[in-house]
Amino acid sequence: xxxxxxxxxxxxxxxxxxxxxxxxxxxxxxxxxxxxxxxxxxxxxxxxxxxxxxxxxxxxxxxxxxxxxxxxxxxxxxxxxxxxxxxxxxxxxxxxxxxxxxxxxxxxxxxxxxxxxxxxxxxxxxxxxxxxxxxxxxxxxxxxxxxxxxxxxxxxxxxxxxxxxxxxxxxxxxxxxxxxxxxxxxxxxxxxxxxxxxxx
Length: 200
Known about the structure:
Belongs to the DESIGUAL family. One of its GO terms (cellular component) is endomembrane system. It is found in: Endomembrane system. Helices cover about 70% and strands about 5% of the residues. By secondary structure, the protein is mostly helical. The chain has one domain (about 1-175). A two-stranded antiparallel ribbon has the order 1-2. Helix 1 runs antiparallel to helix 5. The longest helix has about 50 residues, at about 140-185. About 30% of the residues are buried.
């Protein structure tokens, strides 16, 4: 069951991540561009209707789901009693996991920025509040940057999970081997020796 869980989690996380990247690219491609803004009507800018806002929100939701799934998998290991020692794989996993959350916040905020700055109502509002009444659009670099940070977050999350699952599997195998050796020693009449609680 645990082995199956370790296989399914990265698969589902990868699918969610790919969908998040696809939707973020679509949001970037369909963003409102300055040359697409029509001439002013009664002093108000005329923005084209695009699906970039909905696409950006969808990408952010999918990225959140992917990151939450990875986090839930880490907690699940702990709840099920699967603990690993402070080995290189465990330390690497934790470091990458923390970094993935930092990049997630950057990507998530960027995707929300993409969604907000492709919302016609919001753009009309900030244009009306501007004394110069300039037709503003979102920054292209931020849109593209959100997509790149989205990819980085997904890669870091999957790699951190891979290290954690590898360490947990090794720890389980070591415990099983220790238990087998202990039982074999008792069966052969060897004196009882206390096994070390943790093997590296």
